[in-house]
Every structure is written in C-alpha cells, then in structure tokens.
Amino acid sequence: EAGVVQSPRYKIIEKKQPVAFWCNPISGHNTLYWYLQNLGQGPELLIRYENEEAVDDSQLPKDRFSAERLKGVDSTLKIQPAELGDSAVYLCASSPGGPAGEQYFGPGTRLTVT
Amino acid sequence: GDSVTQMEGPVTLSEEAFLTINCTYTATGYPSLFWYVQYPGEGLQLLLKATKADDKGSNKGFEATYRKETTSFHLEKGSVQVSDSAVYFCALRETGANNLFFGTGTRLTVIP
Question: What is the mean predicted confidence (pLDDT) over B47-75?
C-alpha cells in the first residue's frame, strides 16, 4: 500500500512569490492534516479536513495561507505571498477517520524562502 | 492548554548503551500518548502508544509507560543500535479528539 505522497520534496523561492504544496493521502483515508514543522520544533497543526470539509483551520494564517481538498482526496496548501519566516517543512498526514485513527505522515516539503 | 515537554537533545550514545528520553505532558483530560520517530529524509512514523494510565507501549525494543501520577511517558531502550539514529517526538491526543500535540523532538545519534 502506498503511503502519503507529497510534492515537491524541496522548494526554494524568493520572498513575495507564491508557492503550492500537494498531498495525496493513503487511499480510503477520510481525514487529512497539514502540519508546519519549524527547524528544531515539533509539527504544529495548520488545518484538518474531514473529507472535503475543513473542520479545524484555527491555526491557519488566513491572510496568506489557503488550502483546499476538492473531491475529498488530494489536497493543496498555498502560500501567497511567501515571507522569510515561512521557511519550514510542511507535512501532510492522513488517517482513516475517527478520533482513534492513527495518523500516517508523508515525507514533507522543505520550503526555503530567500 | 495541552502541551508536551521533551528532553532536549541532541543525545549521542555508543552502540548497545541504554537510552532514556524524557517526556512530560500537560492535558485537561485523559489523553493518549505517543512516540513518533523520524528517520533522515522520511516522514514521521508511529513508534508506540499508550491510551490509558499504566499502559505500556512497546515496539522494536523501545518501551514507554503512561504514568499519570507524574504525567510522564519516558521512552526507553535497553540496547541502542546505529540504525536507531533518528529524531524522536513525544505527542499527546485528548480523548475523543483528532489533533496531536507534539514535543520539540530529541535527536539521537548512535555511534559504533
């Protein structure tokens, strides 16, 4: 069974440019998460989807970040415009759903903003 | 609010040494507790978990016991190997909730 797929793995952009990250969860997983992991820190939740509905986006900086999960499968996280402080690893995870479902993580996208 | 405090690293051990990575937590309810491991270039993987007080999670020679009286979930392994070199994250999830709260991670390097 394929795991959570993320692309790109690495991205370098200049500040004020837009950037997008893509995530394909494990087949059949209804719940999808985006996390932000700063250097030397643990992951922090940005947004959680149940199918196509964003059920927890309280930590998503909505002035520059947006996300979508059309059709309840793949998801895209976008930053526009990027700032230097956005340099981090963006992790996607999925779970079968329900509060007891184990979360499976993708390898992440490492973003560097110059 | 919920939080996890993890032993700061990095930790460097010789092969076959004993490992302890401390983790304490603050939670409003009765959380489940987890240890995740992140090998170089890979995503986080669940290493072990415990869902109630006094439960012991174990996997791949690693163990951690859910201690409610000390709000702790320390990770231990009796004899580490070079292949255990990774970053280890302690995390909690409140009962009935989906979201995980992670500690800052502890980098372990095992030298031959």
Answer: 96
